[in-house]
Amino acid sequence: MHDKNIRIGFPSEFLWGGATSANQCEGSYNVGGRGIGHIDLLPQGETRWSIMQGYLDSFEPKENLHYPSRHGIEFYKHYKEDISLLSEMGFKVFRMSISWSRIYPTGEEDTPNEEGLQFYENVFKECHKHGIEPLVTMTHYDIPLELVKKYNGWEGRKTLHCFKKYVSTIVKRYKGLVKYWLTFNEINCVTALPYTAAGVVLDKSKNRDTQIYTAVHHELVASAWAVKYVHESDFESKVGCMLAAGVSYPYRCAPEDIWLAYTTDRNKYFFSDVMSYGKYPNYKLREFGQMGFEIPFLENDEEVLKDNTVDFISFSYYSSHIVCADTDIIAEKAEGNVFPTLRNPYLKEKETAWKWQIDAQGLRTTLNMFYDRYHKPLFIVENGVGGIDNLDNGKVHDEYHEHYLREHIKAMKEAIVLDGVDLMGYTPWGCIDLVSASTGQMKKRYGFIYVDVDDNGNGTYKRYKKDSFYWYKKVIESNGEVL
């Protein structure tokens, strides 16, 4: 007798696609009534990382710096062509985000910008024309700059109220066009990159943890409000949270390393714990007590968190991490990661061009850890490898993209078939080349589609299909069987 719970491959309804964000691809920052977003002040170059960490020194752009998010790849102008290319690959789903400042330029207007609303309506309709479901992130490192100036981004309670207005607007407007929503992109990155993830500028006269966890609380409550709005507006729509994930390995079998690896991962889970269970976990309450932080509960925050948990858990996975409790141990630090990590000597794959270590098995482990913890559907909404691609007579040979994704798709299949994980879909990051979030460069390319633009925004912006374009098309056609 065949057990219907045993799978032999990817489910027939599996959502294959790819992922982007408005602030990295949309461009046209001063077109169509859009206001300035806080990432529009994130330059390329040596000051980029310190600003991402919360050390912004001016709200005015500097003449000698280049701000790549302002042009992106001009998806605003090319969206019909781009969606057609995604359709040619066979996409079932396209993850994208809405620029908050394109809907409410300062965040505080009484009425939304109709031209911005219409743009996204046109994009969603174009997706549906090609049989593609939009998977929409409400805020993907995207806050109107005016809310940073006036309220220090998500540190200010007022930003939460502005967000509620923004979300109620887009949820009502796009009912029937958007079936899958994500609230905050990589919400757990607030602790490492407070400006990027929350628009928080650190003040040396304030306690850093208090600033950051105040912003975290406001985002968690805002996420619950967003779930509430979506569920009340459209019973068929689903809402997920989104985290930067990647299992942490202990450097040694020493108990203190085991504990450090466990707590490192748990600090990531904290965010999804609140959004999935509807309350702050005891381990975090104790930690807050020890640091002297009092959660700024107001109004009906606790009730809203409790009653509006997410429908699914989504996450990004690029690599695993390794930690060690002994600071005297000399180990080379792996580069290119938001979350610090030591180098793993057991990973034999060649490192990426940006020194990231590759660990496909870590994706299977991460999937199982999430599913064991939440018993909710999972969605991998970012996964990929950035590299330097060369355009040669209209062609790009990027076998390294195919290899990386092939190994991770194998790990996904093992998690589904062998482990019973409920995985909804897969949207590799940067399905079309876009501005790198970490470096602000264009030469760090993730996509199946090459865009002719350089780090300074110069180029024809013409699109070219890479070799991986045709490879991924076969993967989707075969529902993950032909790799």
TrEMBL record:
Keyword rRNA-binding applies: no
GO biological process: carbohydrate catabolic process
Superkingdom: Bacteria
PROSITE patterns assigned to the protein according to its UniProt record, in alphabetical order: GLYCOSYL_HYDROL_F1_1 (PS00572), GLYCOSYL_HYDROL_F1_2 (PS00653)
Active-site residues, as the UniProt record annotates them: E382 (nucleophile)
GO cellular component: cytosol
Segments traversing the membrane: none
One MF annotation (Gene Ontology) recorded for this entry: beta-glucosidase activity
Keyword tags: Glycosidase, Hydrolase
Keyword Cell cycle: no
Family: Belongs to the glycosyl hydrolase 1 family.
Designated name of the protein: 6-phospho-beta-glucosidase
